[in-house]
Predict the structure of Tubulin/FtsZ GTPase domain-containing protein.
Amino acid sequence: MREILVLQLGGFGNKMGVKFWEEMFKDSKFEIDNNLHEQSNILQLNTSNVVYYNLQQKIPLPRSIQVDLGQDLPFTNIELNPCNQFSFNYSSGNNFGYVKNNCCNEIVDIIMDSIRQEIEQCDSFQGFQIFASIIGGTGSGLSAVLSQTLKDEYYDTIIQCNLLVPSIKQNDVIVVSPYNSGLALKHLMDSAEQLIFFDNEGIKQNLSRIGIQFDYQDANLHIAQTICCNSSPFRNPGDINSCLRKLSTNLIPFPDYKLLTCSMTNNQQSDYYNEYQKMDEYQIFKELMSTDHNSTITDYFQGRYLAAALSIRGEISNKEIYKYCSNFNYFLEDKDYKTRARKRFEGVNMFFTSICKRKFQNYEFFGSSIIHSNSINQQLDNLSEKFKKMYLKKSYLHKYIQEGIDDQEFVEAQSRLDDIRYQYQINKDRNQWENQEYWE
Ligand SMILES: Nc1nc2c(ncn2[C@@H]2O[C@H](COP(=O)(O)OP(=O)(O)OP(=O)(O)O)[C@@H](O)[C@H]2O)c(=O)[nH]1
Ligand SMILES: [Mg+2]
């Protein structure tokens, strides 16, 4: 089996990670107290091996490592391997520099030891999933340093980062979030293969559409279910057995284009409704490609779709879904949407679709998508603008310089951000696929 190791870093990474494992357990039909449910069959046990171990002993343990610099790993009823839980006595001070240049020197070796032991137990290891926010110090610093170290040591594995990023409109609770995010992104762009963005503002919009007031619990559930569904083709037998590497191949057209967003169908929130709204293929496809269901605040219609990976669960007609995929331009009668949706690389199939007939938990239909669109530039523009404003005034800079992050690193982070934005921008302005050079 192609095993995956989950790394939960910092406050958000750990809280969302716990939710993620709770959802995974429900999906695998394990009871929360780690005991195997009667319904689990052999095939499922074999495929579950991707994310759990110890299955033969009938006490599944998530293959995951939790790290937080403060002593506040969240409580959970799920049994996690205590050897893989690391909490220290540091205070990051919300400072990327302090974590990268001070804490990491002391703790990276300990964490890497644990990672090495995990990987040695695997048959055919495929890669890492990192959960972290790059807003605070711990998440940004640890994810940057760890992903770099992992890339150096396990160069042929895939690193997928699920990142909470600063919101566009809303001001963050952390003043220096543009610095932390900008500096972390510079490192992550070099070492990780996929960077999937979530932002609290986008999640808030998703929740409020279905009448739920935003709080961290619900937001984390939303994100956890999205990631869980995204990764379900890795664990479940279906038409296409997907893996992290296949996702990378299909979603990343050029080396520097690796910023992705997610969407999820609505029906999972039926817990909050008395009435269950039954969905059909049309509704599912529409929701997965729609801007309203986006996990960030960016508007897909302001850019161009480059690629999309759909992952759908339930007794659903493959034929119908493939039909909507190939007729994406025309899949809505709504004229307005139609013209906007046509803004993609015309004539090129951009869909990587996995349909798994096994239901997701108790939901009849369930779907999530990872979307690659250059509308992500809205997020980058905002980040870059805030970064620049602070840097020009040199505000808060001394805190980072004290911790050994020099001016040069800030300049490099800024120019890296501008670089990525520029690349996505030229893609937006002219259709590169029509440019002969790229075909010859
Ligand atoms: N959705 C969601 N957002 C969270 C949660 N916890 C914190 N955040 C957001 O994440 C950002 C802070 O990130 P944390 O993960 O707490 O920071 P950290 O990585 O632990 O870093 P430091 O505490 O600065 O060392 C803030 O913008 C919070 O709004 C959570 O459980 N869910
Ligand atoms: Mg913290």
User: Anything to note?
Assistant: The chain has two domains: 2-378, 379-433. The chain is about 45% helix and 15% strand. Residues 254 and 356 are 29 Å apart (CA to CA).
